[in-house]
Design goal:
This protein has 194 residues and is α+β, with helices and mostly antiparallel strands. The chain folds into two domains: 102 residues, no CATH class; 66 residues, OB fold (Dihydrolipoamide Acetyltransferase, E2P) (Beta Barrel), CATH 2.40.50. It is built from four helices and five strands; from the N terminus they run αααβββββα. Strand 1 and strand 2 form a beta hairpin. It starts with a helix and ends with a helix.
Length: 194
């Protein structure tokens, strides 16, 4: 088997894999199951993922075919060009996918317990020894949660309060200190809601 055939097979396998995976994801929605394995890294995609390997194969094959047929380099030089092309393409693919996945995997989860110490706004008045509701912003999302006064006193609507502690999903609040420098979250205007 000649080196040109090896280059062509590598190129065909790499490109074929990309086409099959792309079509399968498009046709079947990409929901083939869910598996998760932690390996202790912060890298969203592995350098040895099938996509990166297939890109290396396509780059190696394509670069080798160009070096062998078009540039007519010696076997050693052609293999060097093929390896370099494969490494550059797969390295670029790895970096681009890493950047994409790193930015899209920023979690939107929040823990209500992390709201302790935050300044929030009462949206439903808290009656004496009763439960009202406060609005807060967590991870860029405005949310409302039940609230009670720490000392059992009533708290008026739109009052600025500080979350002292969280028990279950209920925030226990007290009036915010004057001059704390924190403004309450402003309600959405009808034009922003659209």
């Amino acid at each position: 088997m000649s080196v040109g055939v090896v280059y062509f097979l590598c190129f065909a396998i790499g490109l074929g894999y990309a086409i099959v995976v792309g079509l399968a994801g498009h046709l079947f929605g990409g929901d083939a199951g869910d598996a998760h394995m932690d390996v202790g890294t912060d890298i969203p995609i592995s350098p040895l993922s099938p996509t990166v390997i297939a890109t290396f194969l396509a780059g190696f094959g394509g670069g080798g075919m160009l070096a062998n047929s078009y540039l007519q380099l010696s076997l050693g030089q052609g293999v060097a060009v093929a390896i370099l092309t494969g490494l550059l393409l797969s390295g670029g693919t790895f970096l681009v996918l890493n950047l994409l996945f790193r930015s899209t995997q920023a979690g939107s989860e929040y823990s209500l317990a992390d709201m302790a110490g935050k300044t929030v706004q009462v949206v439903t008045p808290i009656p004496e020894n009763g439960t009202g509701e406060v609005a807060m912003t967590a991870k860029g999302t405005r949310l409302c949660t039940p609230a009670r006064s720490v000392d059992g006193r009533a708290v008026r609507r739109d009052a600025v309060v500080t979350v002292v502690r969280v028990v279950g999903n209920v925030c226990y609040v007290q009036p915010a200190e004057e001059g704390a420098g924190v403004s309450p979250p402003r309600p959405e205007s009808p034009s922003e809601a659209r």
